[in-house]
Structure formats: structure tokens, C-alpha cells
Write a structure and sequence with these properties.
single chain, four-stranded antiparallel β-sheet, 7 helices, binds 2-oxoglutaric acid, binds fe (ii) ion
């Protein structure tokens, strides 16, 4: 049912950021009839069993291979109740379906911020001014987990959302800690002195909606990038694909599968591992007919602890963040770890 104009049944246009109104946005009220490629659940991506990590040496070995040669894996047996994921997803969809203006009003002066057109944000959670006009086909909420409790929203939907996010955040901290410890052991780093490199207080969630777009091949939901985090944990909602990872110079679609999360190794983990683990390059394509919702968690090192390695000049996460912001403002994109890499004559 793809069309090139906004169809009449799309009465919910006012729920989308004005930035996207004039474009060829389509909406399929009957997703079963979607003509996008069917999702197949057989792929060759690494799968890690979280519970197996504490019991099974083979699982630890698989984790190491996944981090070294892919920089990403699917995570199963993660212990998050399916019910919580379903509720969170439904609540996110309900919130996205509010009008743009009421989303703005409900989140102004609140810990949660609303953004669109880019995933690169200021520390306050608003879109960072860029040195170019690149627009990403995405709308989202930025949720600093440590600041959620005790806030009373004007729209009750946000109160329920906040409660679910806190519960979800507790699971994500637990999962991130378990994965980080296993990764640190794989790298033969000291578990105790590595603790500041995963600071749970820094954790935040981004909840995204990528609006459907009939000319889905022009433009991206999110441009090609690596995550600045130590690690990122993503939940993709029911049956709408879009995430792609770059492996051996080829883009590969990572379809959503029930009961499994996606874990990305981030830039900080790559630096900590002295390039043994790799921060995966990925992007998000737009779906032709259905909006895509994803819920992504990111966690970082304590801001002021220097990362020492043989590949990079010592730097803190705060240094890294400042450099990314500077690059986005001046040249329009993130350069990332390359900015800190030793050149040959600096060794
Ligand atoms: O929406 C997704 O699946 C991925 C989003 C992402 O890559 C990011 O926020 O860094
Ligand atoms: Fe990302």
C-alpha cells in the first residue's frame, strides 16, 4: 500500500515532528499486508546466552569471538520478563501517538527530553546544532535513568512510562555489569580496577520512532556511526527491521527476533581493549510502510578516569565527549576514536 503522498487515513500526522510533514511519509494501517521483505529468523550473527556466561566456559569463548570479530551479538536468556518489554513497547507507542505539541509540553522541564532529526544530543538531551544539514528520519525521547524517580509529569502516560523505564533500567544495569565483567575477564584486565570504566549512573535510554517513508532509500533513520558507549543494549520492536551492521565492508540487516536483545560494543570498550574488541559500525534504514520503534540503552565510563592503552593517547570519557561535540558542530559528524589514536611517530 505504498503511496507517495500522505494518505487520507493518516489522521495522526500531527503526532510527527513538523520536520517530517512535507516529505513522502506513508502509513500502513494494515501491517500484515506489508510488502517489505519478510523477516527471516535464520542468520549467522553471534548469539550469547547471558545465564550461560557464568556457567559455561564455551559461552565466554563465544563472547570473546563476538566482540573481536563482530563487535555485536544477540543476547538471549537475559532475564527481562517478556511482559515488561511488551508493556514498555506499548507505552512507548502510546506516547509517540500523542500530538507533537503535547509531547513537547509534557516533557518540557522534565528529566525526559524530546528530540527529532538527529540522534546526536547535547548533555541536556536536545538536538546538537550541526555543521551540516543532515537530517535523520527519527524522533525520540532521551531518558537519563538516574534522574527519573520522584518526578511528576503533567501527562499520566509519562508517569507510567517513567515507572516502566526505571524497572527496565534496573535490568539493563544488571545485564551491562554482567557482560562488562565477562568482557574484562576475556581481556585479562583487572576486574576491580576496571570498575570505573562502567559507571551505571551514566546509563541512559533512548526511545526512538523512525517514521515510515515511501522513498525509504533516500535518507536514513540514523546515519552510519559507532556508539561512544562502553556497550549499548537495544530492543527492537515487533517485526519492523531497519538496523544494519557493517561487517567486512558489507551492510547486513539485523532483524528483530522475539526474546532477544542486541548488544553493541562501543568506542570506550574498543579503547579499553586496546583495539582487541571492535566498536561496530551500524546505521538504521527507514521502513517503507511501518514506523519502527526501538529502545536503546547506553552506558559510559566515569567521566574523569583516564583510559590508557598502547593505541590511544590517554583520554577520559569527558575528553572524548567534548571532542565529539566539537566535531559535530564544526564539521557536521563524529570523528570518534581516530582523534585520539597515536600516529606512528608518536610511539
Ligand atoms: O534504533 C536502533 O536500532 C539503533 C539506534 C542507534 O544506533 C543509536 O542510538 O546509537
Ligand atoms: Fe548506535
Amino acid at each position: 500500500m505504498a503511496t507517495t503522498t500522505i494518505p487520507e487515513e493518516m489522521s495522526n500526522l500531527d503526532t510527527y515532528p513538523p520536520l517530517f510533514h512535507h516529505q513522502n511519509q506513508t502509513h500502513n494501517p494494515n501491517p500484515e499486508n506489508s510488502s517489505d521483505d519478510p523477516i527471516q529468523d535464520l542468520d549467522l550473527f553471534p548469539v550469547i546466552d547471558l545465564q550461560g556466561l557464568t556457567l559455561n566456559p564455551d559461552e565466554k569463548q563465544r563472547l570473546e569471538v563476538a566482540c573481536k570479530s563482530w563487535g555485536f551479538f544477540r543476547l538471549v536468556n537475559h532475564g527481562i520478563p517478556t511482559n515488561l518489554l511488551t508493556q514498555l513497547e506499548n507505552q512507548a507507542k502510546e506516547i509517540f501517538s500523542m500530538s507533537f505539541e503535547s509531547k513537547r509540553a509534557a516533557t518540557s522541564n522534565s528529566p525526559i527530553s524530546h528530540f527529532s532529526g538527529t540522534g546526536i544530543l547535547t548533555p541536556q538531551g536536545t538536538a546538537l546544532e550541526r555543521g551540516n544539514q543532515l537530517i535523520n528520519w527519527v524522533e525520540g525521547f532521551n531518558v537519563p535513568l538516574g534522574k527519573l524517580s520522584q518526578f511528576k509529569y503533567q501527562a499520566p502516560a509519562f508517569d507510567s512510562f517513567s515507572v516502566l523505564l526505571q524497572e527496565y533500567g534496573n535490568h539493563l544495569s544488571r545485564i551491562a555489569r554482567a557482560l562488562f565483567e565477562a568482557m574484562v575477564k576475556n581481556l585479562d584486565l583487572d576486574v576491580v580496577s576496571s570498575k570505573p570504566y562502567l559507571s551505571e549512573e551514566t546509563g541512559y535510554v533512548r526511545v526512538y520512532r523512525y517514521p515510515a517513508k515511501s522513498d525509504a532509500d533516500s535518507g536514513l533513520g540514523m546515519e552510519e556511526h559507532t556508539d561512544s558507549s562502553v556497550l549499548s543494549i537495544l530492543h527492537q520492536s515487533d517485526g519492523v527491521s531497519g538496523l544494519e551492521i557493517l561487517k567486512d565492508d558489507k551492510w547486513q540487516t539485523v532483524n528483530p527476533l522475539p526474546n532477544s536483545l542486541i548488544v553493541n560494543v562501543g568506542d570506550m570498550m574498543q579503547a579499553l581493549s586496546d583495539d582487541r574488541f571492535k566498536s561496530v559500525t551500524h546505521r538504521v534504514k527507514v521502513n517503507k510502510e511501518r514506523d519502527r520503534v526501538s529502545i536503546c540503552y547506553f552506558v559510559f565510563p566515569t567521566g574523569d578516569v583516564p583510559i590508557h592503552s598502547s593505541s590511544y593517547k590517554p583520554f577520559t570519557y569527558s575528553d572524548f565527549r567534548a571532542q565529539v561535540d566539537e566535531d559535530v558542530k564544526t564539521i557536521g559528524f563524529k570523528v570518534g576514536l581516530k582523534r585520539f589514536r597515536f600516529t606512528k611517530d608518536q610511539h
